[in-house]
Structures are given as structure tokens and as C-alpha cells.
From TrEMBL:
<feature type="domain" description="DHHA2">
    <location>
        <begin position="51"/>
        <end position="213"/>
    </location>
</feature>
<dbReference type="GO" id="GO:0005737">
    <property type="term" value="C:cytoplasm"/>
</dbReference>
<dbReference type="GO" id="GO:0004309">
    <property type="term" value="F:exopolyphosphatase activity"/>
</dbReference>
<dbReference type="InterPro" id="IPR004097">
    <property type="entry name" value="DHHA2"/>
</dbReference>
<protein>
    <submittedName>
        <fullName>Exopolyphosphatase</fullName>
        <ecNumber>3.6.1.11</ecNumber>
    </submittedName>
</protein>
<dbReference type="InterPro" id="IPR038222">
    <property type="entry name" value="DHHA2_dom_sf"/>
</dbReference>
<keyword id="KW-0378">Hydrolase</keyword>
<dbReference type="Pfam" id="PF02833">
    <property type="entry name" value="DHHA2"/>
</dbReference>
């Protein structure tokens, strides 16, 4: 229900999804209009209303800490470059915009959480993929943030894998990555983008990053 946005015809919903929903929904507490004795079921709701409730619950992450946001929908990957070296990448999908997140936590805490998660997860590259609706016009947006491990101090100009990832992402038209500035990113081994291609999710971004790494 959540991954298909309420069984919408958006390219994600399959016949298995609709068949499963048609079978399971009438067998849940929400799908029964009446209870024993013919009394109305106060918990009954339509499939559409149930989907909206579940989606809203998924997006309600305001109480989660920065590291909890990174860990709630996280997938690790390991790919080899042309030298046979393993590059460990973690991709976190977060239902909150970067601006909102930084305003909430402050830029110092925000960036500290990125580095702490990189260290805890033992990865070489962290990708933060945001998907959210704007607070004023309710427009759907996606962003991407790539972060590399970094000690204190200002980072040098991007080079090596860092530069290849940045240029590879920006040249991939399927991702629609337009570089953007966010608070605190100056002098960091990190780059942020707004995605003009809203359909580019982790399923498309992971293979794109994999191809860049394996060619590096």
C-alpha cells in the first residue's frame, strides 16, 4: 500500500499488489463494514483512506533524530572499481527535505550526524535521497546528497572517485540532478542536488552510482 502510493497506476503497482489487496483488505478490521449483531464498525475505512493513513504515518518522522532518519530506510552496497578495490556505499531514503532537516537540527548537528553514520556503517560514500512535499505548496520534490568521510578542516577540491561521482551524477540525464547549495556544505567533501526527474528513486540511483564506481 505504501510503496505503491495506495495502489495508484504510477508504474509501481503490479497485478500481484492489487490481487493481494483485494484478498486481504476484506479480512482486516478496517475492511469490515459491520461487526457482530449488525452494528457499524467504527474502525471501518475505505481502501483509499487506509492508504492515506499509512502514507501519512510513514512521512511522520519529525520525532526521529538525524541518525534515525538515516537508518530507517537504509541499504548498503559494495562494488569494486577497476583496480578490484571494494567501495562501500550506503543509500538512505529520507522523507524530509534537506532545508527542513537542517533548520530543525542546525547545520552543525546535521553534518555531524552524516559523519557519525558514515563511521558507524563503515562506508566510503553516503548517499542521502530525500523525497518530500513542500510545506507551502505541497509539491513533490526529490533531492540527493553525497557525503564522503572527512576530518576537521576544509576539504581540498574534489578529485578521484569524489570528482567522478559528482560529474557522473550530473551528466546522467535520467537522474536530472541540478546542483544546489545547502547550509554548511562549504568546504566539505559533499555535494547536493535537486532532482528534476521525480521518478528517479534508489532503484535508479544505485545502478547509476554502481556504474560510475565500476568504471573508476
Amino acid at each position: 500500500m505504501i510503496d505503491t502510493s495506495g495502489l495508484k497506476d504510477n508504474g509501481k503497482t503490479t497485478l500481484h499488489d492489487t490481487t493481494a489487496a483485494e484478498y486481504l483488505y476484506p479480512r482486516t478490521l478496517f475492511g469490515v463494514p459491520t461487526i457482530a449483531g449488525g452494528e457499524p464498525n467504527k474502525d471501518h475505512m475505505t481502501l483509499s483512506d487506509l492508504a492515506s493513513l499509512l502514507i501519512d504515518a510513514k512521512r511522520d518522522v519529525i520525532r526521529l533524530s538525524g541518525q534515525e532518519l538515516l537508518g530507517r530506510d537504509y541499504k548498503p552496497f559494495a562494488w569494486k572499481n577497476t583496480k578490484g578495490e571494494v567501495v562501500r556505499v550506503g543509500l538512505s531514503t529520507v522523507p524530509m527535505g534537506l532545508k527542513h532537516w537542517i533548520e530543525r537540527d542546525g547545520k552543525k548537528k546535521f553534518w555531524a550526524d552524516q559523519q557519525a553514520w558514515i563511521k558507524e556503517s563503515n562506508i566510503d560514500v553516503l548517499g542521502v535521497l530525500t523525497t518530500f512535499r513542500t510545506r507551502t505548496k505541497n509539491k513533490h520534490k526529490r533531492e540527493m546528497l553525497i557525503v564522503f568521510p572527512q576530518d576537521e578542516g576544509v576539504a581540498d577540491a574534489p578529485s578521484g572517485l569524489e570528482l567522478k561521482l559528482y560529474t557522473g551524477i550530473e551528466s546522467n540525464q535520467d537522474l536530472g540532478a541540478v546542483q544546489k547549495d545547502i547550509p554548511g556544505i562549504e568546504g566539505r567533501r559533499a555535494r547536493a542536488w535537486e532532482q528534476t526527474e521525480k521518478q528517479a528513486t534508489r532503484k535508479q540511483i544505485a545502478p547509476a552510482i554502481q556504474a560510475i564506481i565500476e568504471a573508476s
